[in-house]
Amino acid sequence: MTSRSRPEIVLTGLGTACAVGTGCPALWEALAAGRDGIRDIERFSAAPFRSRLAGLWPRWDRANAEACTALELATESAREAWMSARAPQAAVAPHRVGVVLGTCFGERYGGFSELARGVAVAIGAEGPCLTVPTACAASTTAIGVGRDLIDEGAADLVLAGGVDVITREVFAGFHALGALSGGKCTPFGASVGLTLGEGSGFVLLEGLERARHRGAEPLAHVLGYGISADAFHATAPDPTGGGVMRAIRAALLDAGTLPGEVDFVSAHGTGTEANDAAEWLAVRSTIGDQVPISSSKSLLGHAQGAAGVL
Predict the structure, then answer these.
(1) Number of structural domains, the chain?
(2) Quick one: average pLDDT of 65-81?
(3) Does residue 169 belong to any structural domain of this protein?
(4) pLDDT given at position 261
């Protein structure tokens, strides 16, 4: 069990913008129907690359690449989460509202703190404003950090999530690593390689008592989280799954949850041989081999800093 008591933190708002459309209803309908958002790239020429597919936000399918900004994409989902939680009616002082944003590439490889601040301005938040740059784990780490801010009394409401945009440079980088699949990715499947995606997603976090007091519906409880680092390789995971095992065990301990109580694992599941093998080994070693496991990347692509929250 956890070492100390703390307030229950719940999620009361959701917002998304990704390869299958804008808004949570669009995402859920696509997931339920098994409809993916992976298609040919038209934003830039992908002729030199092994793959010409990506999970692009439909609003930008044929957009000029220079017009596609991370701030616009992030703001789209941040506002949905904010409004769906009825946060404007929560009567919380602006300096008690925080923002935690996860991203790999920021606004074209810069402007990381400015990106988080732009989201804060969009919803009128004047409290803690943090950027989490932990690569593909950034947005899920952001949710954990948001939980901590409320737990420590630094904020009453926290908007947490992540964003990343596909550019030609990002695509070329993954191609140079040899990580791209020639077709659509199949996490834990026969086809090896990932499909890049883009998107943004945010959740609104608050204490359970506050949510109940204002009549907000808790959509989920944030029980615990765990973070770790492989310290193995710049881009490849530890093949023994050691880092993932540590993160899983830390999350279970933080939540006071036993492995047998886990009903489902939403995996990173990039579709690459190195990741999927190590991740499954870690899950099997900590939770068991009977728990259902899947990855949404076959439908959304790998949305980088937004992958976890989506």
Answers:
(1) 1
(2) 96
(3) yes
(4) 96
Q: For the chain, report the end-to-end CA distance as a whole number of angstroms.
A: 28
Which residues are the active-site residues? 136, 268, 302
The residue among 34, 107, 115, 42 whose CA lies nearest residue 75 is 115
Q: pTM for the complete prediction? A: 0.95
Residue 266 has a CB neighbour count (10 Å cut-off) of 13
Residue 283 belongs to a domain: no
CA 142/CA 131 separation, integer angstroms: 8
The predicted model gives 113-135 an average pLDDT of 97
Q: Which residue has the tokens 């904020």?
A: 155
pLDDT at 264 (0 to 100): 97
Domain hosting residue 219, numbered range: 11-223+298-306
Is 287 contained in some domain? no
Q: Residue 72, Cα to own-chain centre: how many angstroms?
A: 17
Burial of 227 (0-12, 13-18, 19+ CB in 10 A): middle
Q: Which amino acid is at 290?
A: Q
> Taking a C-beta distance cutoff of 8 angstroms, is the pair 19, 57 a contact?
yes
Who wins on pLDDT, 65 or 144? 144
Q: pLDDT above 70 covers what percent of the chain?
A: 98
User: Is 54 a residue whose pLDDT tops 80?
Assistant: yes
Can you read off the two tokens belonging to residue 172? 């070329």
At residue 230 the predicted structure's pLDDT band, cuts being 50, 70 and 90, is: confident
Buried-exposed string 157-176: b where 16+ CB fall within 10 A, e elsewhere? bbbbbbbbbbbeebbeebbe
